[in-house]
Amino acid sequence: MAWFRLFACGEDFPVIIDNNTEVVGFYTTRYIEAPTQGEAEALCSELLFEDEDLQPPPGDWSDFQPRIMFEEVTQVAEPVDIDDNFSFFPMEEDPDGEDY
User: Fold this and answer.
1) Which residues have CB under 8 Å from 26's CB, separation 6+?
2) What is the pTM of this model?
3) How many domains is the chain partitioned into structurally?
4) What are the pLDDT tens digits along the chain (100 aa)?
């Protein structure tokens, strides 16, 4: 098995930040041990979707389709002890949308 460093970007995650419900995106880096890059991406996606910090608050969030993309995946010799928190960012409004 090999170690992979995955730089992930998530979008459209409804979460609670500072007691407010917001729909956000995030960046994070994770190290995953897996036989292949594809399996590392699949396992990392599963772990991120299950992360307690990314769970939606109560309510109907069926209009949102959270997604995770891997912007960079690199095989490494071993994992590095890093801060594995999330850097959240607000999702932009639809630029083609009408203001009423």
Assistant:
1) 8, 9, 10, 13, 54, 86, 87, 88, 89
2) 0.86
3) 1
4) 999 999 999 999 999 989 999 999 999 999 999 999 999 999 999 999 999 999 999 999 999 999 999 999 999 999 998 888 999 999 976 555 444 3
